[in-house]
């Protein structure tokens, strides 16, 4: 039986980089919120004993695809605790809506959805904390998608504290370029010394993304897009980009601005939600 599972986008409502770690990664403080928009995974559990990806990605070997890696990581963890049904397998297809290199967390969300969905379908019995521990090895953003609640994140993004930001409407726009996260974090001009602040303090300050100035300088189209959106609403980069979002109080206001977008801009309007669509699906809501 085919089952359908959402893999929602996320926004970084703010992002501060507070230092560089000895291992080369960066400590940060960020506020994650989900969107009621994203990719969709169709998962058919079976008795084949293998994972079959029905929708491969051009240029990405199957063994490196995060969907396949997440499924295999779950298999390894479940086998280690002898909770995996014999010959458990699955066929997985994805409807891809989120752009790669867009800062919306598409790959991490796909991985988390696979972990959560297969844990449920195979009845392997792993807790959310155990799934998150598997997920962080696949990507720093995977745990927030596993837990499925808006969160204030610290460390490299794995230290999570539930949060309840306002659920605004967003116009999310893509400028048609792809931003590689390592390029941004390796840029000498990147701000790396933002002060460590409490969530309460950060919520009182204007929201800001420390990566934005570097990305705007490296990508003219991102700079043009931020400048254009700022004419209509508070706007900023999400993650390391390339997507930019503008916040509105109502859906019609966001859609009105989207209709004015330049032809080179691809965009959509979505609601920010503090409970992930994946969690709502898991709970039957």
- The unreliable regions are none
CATH topology (fold) name of the largest domain: Ribosomal Protein S5, domain 2
DSSP helix count? 10
The percentage of residues in β strands lies in 25-35%
Number of strands: 10
CATH class of the largest domain: Alpha Beta
- Count of individual domains: 2
Beginning-to-end CA distance, first to last residue? 20 Å
CATH architecture of the largest domain: 2-Layer Sandwich
Going by helix content, strand content and strand pairing, the class is alpha+beta
Major pleated sheet: 10 strands, mixed
**Helix content bin:** 25-40%
Principal-axis shape: globular
Mean pLDDT: 95
The Rg value, from CA coordinates, equals 19 Å
Series of H and E elements: EEEHEHHHEEEHHHHEEHEH
Can you offer a commentary on this structure?
The protein has 285 residues and is α+β, with helices and mostly antiparallel strands. Helix content is 31%, strand content 28%. It has 10 helices and 10 strands. It is globular.
